[in-house]
Structures are given as structure tokens and as C-alpha cells.
Amino acid sequence: MSAKNFTRLFIGNLPWTVGHQELRKYFREFGKIAAASVVVDRNTGISKGYGFVTFFNSDSYERITNQKSHNIDGWNLIIQRSTGTPKNS
Q1: Separation in Å, CA 22 to CA 17, 37, 58, 87
Q2: How far apart are CA 85 and CA 55, in angstroms?
Q3: How confident is the model at residue 85 (pLDDT cuts 50, 70, 90)?
Q4: How far is CA 87 from CA 24, 34, 79, in A?
Q5: How far is CA 69 from CA 56, 58, 64, 76, in A?
Q6: Model-level pTM?
Q7: pLDDT of residue 83
């Protein structure tokens, strides 16, 4: 499958208690996930309040945008298509 088929989303306003697994668990109902990660501070290990979810196809993004709002633990998420290229860690 070519990289063109992947859809990467920026997920903002995440609660600091949400980790990679919780992020993946929430979004897996919208499609098959290639990757899900929460960005953390290198010094403290605490979430910076945002992350990224990559789906194997763009249909997932359409399903996400068809739902009026998304929230985890009462926090309304900010969801946008990511235009950046993922960094390898």
C-alpha cells in the first residue's frame, strides 16, 4: 500500500491522562489504525496535550468528520488533517 493512502490526523486538546493505547482505542472505531501516538515532554514524560493518529485510508477521516464532536474524559478534541511528515523516533 502506498503512503498516499494513509491519512494522518493531528489530535489536540488531549487530557494529560491519555496515552497511546487510549488514543488508539478511541479512534479504532473509525477505521484501521496504522499508528497512534501522544506527544510527551522528553524531560518529564508528561503528555503535551496532543498527538497523531494515522489511518490506512482516507475513509476513516470522513467517518470522523461526520461525527459532530469527539471527546475523551470530557475534553473536546481538536481534530485536523496533519500536513507534516511523521518523525522517526
Answers
A1: 9, 10, 21, 21
A2: 14
A3: low
A4: 18, 15, 19
A5: 22, 19, 9, 7
A6: 0.86
A7: 77
